[in-house]
Specification:
Blueprint lengths: L1 E2 L4 H10 L3 E3 L5 H5 L8 E3 L9 E3 L3 E5 L4 H6 L7 H7 L5 H6 L2 H7 L7 H6 L3 E6 L2 E6 H4 E3 L2 E2 L6 E8 L6 E7 L10 E9 L5 E9 L6 E2 L1 H7 L30 H18 L3
Length: 276
């Protein structure tokens, strides 16, 4: 069975009738199949245009679930979104950025998903809708493990919601890989810094991906950065204790020890890049 609804209500009604594989850009779904055909009931969201929009409100910025990475990269957004827009330009190739969607990146729940660290740093929430109604979850609670999320089979991710609590912050995203383009991260970091009129940090947000089962904020490091002057060299403040929550694995891309050592350097570089 293949369904291509035109509204969110139609999509939710289909999900309420039974489990279906949700398809939008398909940039994660089809590569995961390898040489196998797509089987089972499919819910194709490509015609649900109401999910493809960025709305800027006074208190919240809403990014529709089907919004492509290209559209995010080109949107006129506050400076605190620079890290997310830099990550958008790192998602695969240009063709993948044109087709891949923000919700697909989150629902795939890969530890190396480029969009997750900058969205964590933005305190993003995930909006889920079903015939029973709408609920919101912090992104940190939505992704529950490796390739696992809190989405129920009757629910559809409808939007990513970002509160406008750090609009004026400067931000940056860096990733480390075996090559420059089209690479799965060895480690990645998103940073947002907001300074007070004295030039001292009054908000600091640091998120790390590809170094644990789920991307994480580093609250101990964030606390250490508070009231520090915004200037190059903040990486010197990073201590091993700040990374205690990370649990990198060893794989074909890098050993666990290398990841842990590399991410410390990468955080320092991202702190500097956020000030440019």
């Amino acid at each position: 069975m293949y369904l291509r609804p035109r509204t969110v209500d139609e999509a939710c009604a289909a999900l309420a009738a039974g489990p279906m594989r949700i398809l939008s850009g398909g940039t994660d779904v089809f590569p995961s199949l390898g040489d196998r055909p797509l089987t089972g009931p499919v819910l194709d969201l490509s015609a649900v245009t109401e999910l493809d929009a960025i709305s800027v409100g006074p208190d919240m910025i809403r990014i529709g679930a089907r919004t492509s990475w290209t559209r995010i990269a080109r949107a006129g957004l506050p400076t605190s979104f620079r890290a997310l827009q830099q990550a958008a330009r790192e998602v695969g190739s240009i063709q993948i950025q044109n087709a891949g969607t923000i919700a697909g990146n989150l629902c795939n729940a890969s530890p190396a998903a480029d969009g997750v660290p900058p969205l964590l740093a933005l305190d993003a929430k995930v909006e889920l809708v079903s015939v029973a109604g709408i609920r919101q979850l912090p992104l940190a609670d939505f992704i529950t493990g490796y390739r696992k999320t809190a989405r129920q089979q009757t629910e559809l991710v409808s939007a990513v919601l970002v509160p406008r609590t750090i609009d004026a912050g400067c931000s940056a995203f860096l990733k480390l890989g075996a090559r420059k383009y089209m690479v799965i991260s060895i480690a990645m970091v998103a940073v947002i810094l907001e300074a007070d009129p004295r030039g001292h940090i009054r908000q600091a947000r640091v998120a790390v991906g590809a170094c644990s089962e789920v991307a994480q904020r580093l609250p101990a490091l964030e606390a250490t950065l508070l009231d520090q002057r915004v200037q190059p060299g903040l990486g010197a403040l990073i201590a091993d204790a700040h990374l205690a929550g990370l649990s990198p694995i060893g794989d074909v891309r890098a050993s666990a020890d290398y990841r842990l050592d590399a991410v410390k350097t990468l955080i320092g570089r991202t702190l500097d890049a956020a000030q440019l």
